[in-house]
Amino acid sequence: MATRWGICGAGKISHDFSVAMKTLPAGDHQIAAVAARSLQRAQEFAKKHGVSRAYGSYEELAGDPEIDMVYLGVLHTEHWRVGLLFLKAGKNVLCEKPFAMNSRQVTDLIAASKRSNVFLMEAIWSRCFPVHAEVRRLLAEGSVGDVKLVKAYFGSPQLHIPRSVEKELGGGALLDIGVYCLQFVLMVFNGERPQSIQATGVLLDSGVDESMVVVMKFSGKRMAFCAFSIAVPLPNDATISGTNGTIKVLGPMHCPTSLVVKGKETQYALPEPCLPLNFTNSTGLRYEAEEVRQCLLKGLKESPRMPLSDSVLLAEIMDEVRKQVGVVFSQDSQ
Ligand SMILES: NC(=O)c1ccc[n+]([C@@H]2O[C@H](COP(=O)([O-])OP(=O)(O)OC[C@H]3O[C@@H](n4cnc5c(N)ncnc54)[C@H](OP(=O)(O)O)[C@@H]3O)[C@@H](O)[C@H]2O)c1
């Protein structure tokens, strides 16, 4: 039986997610309903993507008994409030990154999922790509020896996008794209808590971060370096340096199609989209959709690819980074 998805929010990433879904077998994945704050937007989205039910409120989607999984594609600032709505209604939830605005909100979402005994995952889609699966395999077999340094870059000029720059919309480089660099480091170091975090950055006039550099130290003389920016492009790649060679995930490292291991490059093709996409390589969202389906079929309440413990640690690191750089959101005092 197909996994019946409900899409929450009729914006850019929900569009891309729905296009990616069309690259998977219809017998496995079906978008059963879409909800937006306005019925007209939901209906337009439903027409474009061939979705049978359209709702003009998120509450109606939460009350739809014929939904197995909600994809939460709304702004970061809404993840906590809208996530709790669905979790309290007993829905399984795949929530876009960043999970929420701070670690307190993240732990609230996880507690709600436990109370309702439902599945919950932060949509760090990178972890579900074949390239990342291969990186984990190579690390597990020790192919580059002892990993000493991990570097990750993500620079994407987006100062023209309101949700990237405005504080009340959850703007800033860290929560939007820095999260991908930090999660990559945590994946390589198996979700280990860093021994130290040193962050510096520059802010926009709105008070959110334009660019940041984060250096972390881990046990066993291991280190990580991340640089990210919403002002300038960067290589957007990630490098794992070991005592016996290097693994390089070529840009875009958050949705990669090329891996270089000890100098040898391998390509991983993505399917073509049936409609134009808003973001790079978005048909790769298919991998996290399939990961979620496999988890549901196994009766899991979280994904081993992106465990909830990694999401909590990620949020705690981002809280500390923001504290050091001086980025404060209204949600921090609520
Ligand atoms: N995985 C990825 O590669 C990827 C890429 C881009 C974004 N994202 C994540 O996806 C989320 C949405 O990003 P997006 O680019 O799709 O954003 P978007 O299109 O600007 O907005 C998404 C939805 O959020 C709701 N929304 C917009 N403005 C709002 C406001 N002022 N107050 C309350 N709700 C508002 C709207 O829902 P309605 O349709 O119901 O009105 C809108 O459709 C973000 O958390 C982002 O980090 C992930």
Describe this structure in words.
With about 325 residues, the protein is of the alpha/beta class. It has 2 domains: about 5-125, 3-Layer(aba) Sandwich (Rossmann fold); about 130-265 and about 310-325, Dihydrodipicolinate Reductase, domain 2 (2-Layer Sandwich). It is about 35% helix and about 25% strand. The protein has 10 helices and 14 strands. The protein has helices at about 10-20, 40-50, 60, 75-90, 105-115, 130-140, 160-165, 175-190, 285-295, 310-325; strands at about 5-10, 30-35, 55, 70, 90-95, 120-125, 145-155, 195-205, 210-220, 220-230, 240, 245-250, 260, 265. The strands form 2 sheets. It has an 8-stranded mixed sheet with strand order 8-9-10-7-11-12-13-14, covered by helices on one side. It has a 6-stranded parallel sheet with strand order 3-2-1-4-5-6, with helices on both faces. A hairpin with a 5-residue loop joins strand 8 (about 195-205) and strand 9 (about 210-220). Helix 4 (about 75-90) runs parallel beside helix 5 and helix 8 (about 175-190) crosses helix 10. The chain starts with a strand and ends in a 9-residue tail after the last helix. Bound molecules: NADP nicotinamide-adenine-dinucleotide phosphate. The site of NADP nicotinamide-adenine-dinucleotide phosphate has 20 residues, from helix 1 and helix 4.
